[in-house]
Amino acid sequence: MPVAQHFDSQVLSLLQGKVKLIHTDKGAIYLVGPIKLPVNLFGETVEFKWYCWLNCEEVADDFERIIAKLSSVNLAEMQQSSVLVHGDFENAEHALIRFHSICHTGDIFGSKRCDCGYQLKQSMKHVAEHGSGAIFYLANHEGRGIGLFSKALAYILQENGYDTVDANLQLGFVDDSRDYGDAIKVLKALRAKPVTLITNNPKKLEALRQAGLDVEDRVQLWGDVSEYNEKYLKTKIERAGHLNEGEGCCNND
Ligand SMILES: [Zn+2]
After folding, report:
1. Which residues cross the membrane (predicted)?
2. Does position 228 have pLDDT exceeding 80, yes or no?
3. Which of 46, 66, 129, 194 could form a disulfide with 214 if both were Cys (CB 3.0 to 4.6 A apart)?
């Protein structure tokens, strides 16, 4: 039996004021923030506000019950998603948003096999220049939803002639299993007005609209084509429905 824990009342009141409960079909999302996050963006310091969220089956207005569980559930084993917000996101007339799928190899290592890292930084730059917006960083979207280990296997197949879509299918996955439901719920908790979506992928725009996102416009993000991702980007256009409307080629999305 876990030992009942009691937390310092000041600690609790500090946290309680920063946690928002969002009801879902499966339970609740606990959204924590805003937290000041100054970011080094191309050599300049840009102020963002950061929020992180956690899915939980238990719906409790008493946040102490949730905190009491944290130390025993090993959250580090399952990464949480988060969102970087810039400017007056709630009230701005027009706000840019991006739903960025986590890419361990591209975002962290700067892999040139895809252009995720480039897209992430460019979206942050767009949002900062526009003045208001949000970058959702979706932690359960690795490899279009197959996970990091399976992505490594898929890369081996890709090195042997399979394209990105076929590699996923050969491993028994659907090509794209990403779900945006939770992120949209979090977005709605932060902003009620329509948003402009940063994406090259019309299918993603459609999926988000069907999931209830109020999108007024789409802006595209092009660039960072190299010999290493040419084939990958070509597959995106030919097989995954991305439009190559910009200069150069399209990006992962
Ligand atoms: Zn990537």
Report:
1. none
2. no
3. 194
